[in-house]
């Protein structure tokens, strides 16, 4: 006899959204890994894992769940999921593309504006009563700058579209040249960085893209260059970025993501030319709900033997 949906054991790896938690609890048999870290008590019951950018499904977790058939991540990035292990074991994987593209690309533009126009520093200037003693210093213009995008995927393309509305020129690096785009393509990131004023990292984190923004790329971007990272922290060699900012080899950075979240290099905290966020690129009420609904829809599709809505594997 077919098992009912409410008997399906679904394991959340970490606290994500309370709305998602309620939806999963209403429909399935929900287990929370963070409330029972060893996991051994319920491992036989789990048929699906819901992961996120903090904790996905690594080889160890996958091996510990003998009946696992599906991993649904509450994120578009799947760098925290061992895809090879999933393929080897016939485990399906789904993510949440498209529904977060607007928010993440809005965030990239917001970070670029905030970094160049020093919005956070100026906010502090007013709050601290410094305006009475004189004007805030001049900052740098965003409109019309040349933008280099690493990863002209869904989010990279949405950033490009927004930046065009600011009169910016667009160039990019991706694994492949996009024949449906008029933007300038550079087959390597050093050339891209040498030919733009603002470099935006929006590609997927893979073995090939880890530290794709390295010392050479930062050097090519140069002392007037700005780096924006809304992809993943490990796309950037963080110690190199910190030393370039401290030594004036880079003008500024707007960072939503970091290599060892939630740890942020101490040296960045005191820099006025840096804008820091806590990996909140897609964190709006609207998008969080849409992502949660997509996670649930993928799980239901899997359990009902229907095609996944947004399959990765
Ligand atoms: P996507 O449509 O799959 O785009 C990924 C892009 O990465 C593609 O353009 C791809 O190039 C490029 N890429 C992959 N390997 C590359 C390489 N070796 N060198 C250069 N480019 C490479 O994904 P998306 O929806 O735009 O999301 C992109 C990433 O944003 C996600 O993977 C995630 O890490 C990040 N993200 C961050 C937040 C946040 O809160 N900060 C939120 C959502 C997503 P091709 O086009 O040539 O294949």
How far the N terminus sits from the C terminus, by CA atoms, comes to: 27 Å
- Number of contiguous helices: 11
> H/E order of the elements?
EHEEHEHEHHEHEEHEHEHEHEH
- Number of separate strands: 12
Percent helix, as a range, is: 25-40%
How would you explain this protein's 3D organization?
The chain is of the alpha/beta class and 313 residues long. Helix content is 34%, strand content 15%. It folds into 2 domains: 5-98 and 285-303, Rossmann fold (3-Layer(aba) Sandwich), CATH 3.40.50.720; 101-276, Rossmann fold, CATH 3.40.50.720. The chain has helices at 18-27, 59-64, 83-89, 101-116, 119-127, 154-165, 189-194, 215-221, 238-246, 266-269, 285-303; strands at residues 9-12, 29-32, 46-51, 70-73, 92-94, 146-150, 169-173, 184-185, 198-201, 226-229, 252-255, 274-276. Strands 8-7-6-9-10-11-12 form a 7-stranded parallel beta sheet. Strands 2-1-3-4-5 form a 5-stranded parallel beta sheet, with helices on both faces. It is globular, with a radius of gyration of 21 Å. The model has no long low-confidence stretch (mean pLDDT 97). The structure holds NADP nicotinamide-adenine-dinucleotide phosphate (NAP). NADP nicotinamide-adenine-dinucleotide phosphate is lined by residues 76-77, 97, 100, 104, 150-156, 173-176, 202-206, 208-209, 230-232, 256-257, 279, 281-282.
């Amino acid at each position: 006899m077919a098992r009912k949906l409410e008997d399906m054991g679904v394991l959340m790896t970490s606290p994500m959204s309370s709305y998602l938690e309620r939806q999963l609890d209403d429909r399935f048999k929900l287990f929370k890994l963070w409330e029972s870290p060893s996991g051994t008590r319920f491992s036989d019951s789990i048929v699906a894992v819901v992961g996120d950018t903090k904790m996905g499904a690594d080889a160890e977790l996958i091996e510990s769940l003998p009946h696992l058939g599906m991993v649904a991540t509450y994120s578009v990035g799947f760098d925290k999921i061992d895809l090879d292990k999933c393929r080897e074991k016939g485990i399906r994987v789904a993510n949440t593309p498209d529904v977060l593209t607007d928010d993440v690309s809005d965030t990239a533009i917001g970070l670029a504006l905030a970094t160049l126009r020093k919005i956070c520093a100026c906010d502090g200037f007013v709050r601290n009563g410094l305006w009475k003693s004189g004007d805030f210093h001049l900052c740098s213009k965003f409109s019309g700058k040349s933008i280099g995008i690493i990863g002209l995927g869904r989010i990279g393309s949405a950033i490009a579209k927004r930046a065009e509305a600011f009169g910016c020129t667009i160039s990019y690096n991706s694994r492949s040249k996009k024949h449906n785009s008029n933007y300038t393509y550079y087959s390597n990131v050093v050339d891209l960085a040498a030919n733009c004023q603002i470099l935006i990292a929006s590609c997927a984190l893979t073995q090939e893209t880890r530290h794709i923004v390295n010392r050479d790329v930062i050097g090519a971007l140069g002392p007037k260059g700005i780096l924006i990272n809304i992809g993943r922290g490990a796309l950037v060699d963080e110690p190199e970025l910190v030393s370039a900012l401290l030594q004036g080899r880079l003008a500024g950075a707007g960072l939503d993501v970091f290599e060892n979240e939630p740890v942020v290099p101490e040296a960045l905290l005191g820099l006025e030319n840096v804008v820091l966020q806590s990996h909140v690129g897609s964190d709006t009420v609207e998008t969080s709900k849409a992502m949660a609904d997509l996670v649930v829809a993928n799980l239901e599709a899997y359990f009902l033997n229907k095609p996944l809505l947004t399959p990765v594997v």
